[in-house]
Amino acid sequence: METTTEAGAEANTEAARFDELIAADDRIEPRDWMPDDYRRTLIRQMSQHAHSEIIGMQPEANWISRAPSLKRKAILMAKVQDEAGHGLYLYSATETLGVTRDELTEQLLAGKAKYSSIFNYPTLSWADIGAIGWLVDGAAICNQVPLCRCSYAPYGRAMVRICKEESFHQRQGFEILLTLMRGTPEQQRMAQDAVDRWYWPSLMMFGPPDADSPNSARSMGWKIKRFSNDELRQRFVAMLVPQAEALGVTLPDPDLRWNEQRQAYDLGPIDWSELQEVIAGRGPCNAQRLQRRREAHEDGAWVREAAAAYAAKQAASRAAATAEAVA
Ligand code: FAQ
Description:
Elements: H1 2-23, H2 36-55, H3 57-61, H4 70-95, H5 101-109, H6 126-144, H7 153-181, H8 185-204, H9 216-221, H10 229-247, E1 257-259, E2 264-266, H11 272-282, H12 286-299, H13 301-326
Antiparallel strand pairs: 1-2
The structure holds Phenylacetyl coenzyme A (FAQ).
Phenylacetyl coenzyme A is lined by residues 44-45, 48-49, 52-53, 56, 83, 114, 116-117, 132, 136-137, 140, 143, 204-208, 213-216, 219, 225, 229, 279.
């Protein structure tokens, strides 16, 4: 009985300590006590984020072999490799919460895990690579810079490095579009068409409107998320408007205007049913993206087997060396 009371008192102290750390804007480390729901929320968000980086390699990889010059090809290859790196940091950070990368991969391949809706759209022209860099990486930066201050330290630390690379990615996308906009009328049309197709899906990346976002309030209370979905969407549009002007492209929203009274942009209606459809697995490329990921996982089996065999060999020779030293 006494033991139960002692255990209860200890749990209360740990919970109070957790609340104090959050209130003081301090960081939670993997060894610290944390509520089960906090852990679950982080695993959910961080693994979805990791999967997004990995699936997000596909739409751009589609253009590596068709990039218009050697320089463009080298840049695009480097960018796609960066996304793989981001996925790896994020899987590693998620593993600190007590889940394995194998389990997370299994959930993705089984179609049980979510990843960002944006990567279920096709890349139809070279200008799409510019639009992805400008809009998709731009949205990623708006969403992810505040995540550098996430209360869970390994996630925040991973985001610092990721954001540095994302800002380079955004500039390369802007530069592709700028080059096209300074080109022939056909190239200008291609750039505008890409912006028309990627603009609305990029606004959806921030998630449903605040009133329909079941996770936001709690995640903000825990300082995992620092801003709501709608707040970040507003920041994104405010960043895009002057950049679109500099590029000479039109954002495809006739209702978009600055509202002096609200000190915010009024946006035209967003088709939330489209986001729901894509999240439910019925977007233009969902099936293709998962199929490709499954094939890539199978094709890579020999690499995983070779790495495991090498690690076992190394461990055996270390054990033999230790045994010899002891003898
Ligand atoms: N797509 O209650 P909320 C990148 C789900 S990486 C799919 O508002 P929350 C880099 C949500 O999971 C892009 N699902 O949820 C790159 C939840 O479902 P659940 C990825 C979505 O977590 C560039 C439900 O709807 N970035 O771009 C989406 O508070 C170029 C209700 O939503 C991140 O993951 C969506 N768009 O807020 C790579 C950033 N929106 O889990 C390659 C970190 C919502 O309850 C090339 N994540 N859902 O079953 C976040 O900030 C948040 O998780 C949000 C969603 C904002 C995405």
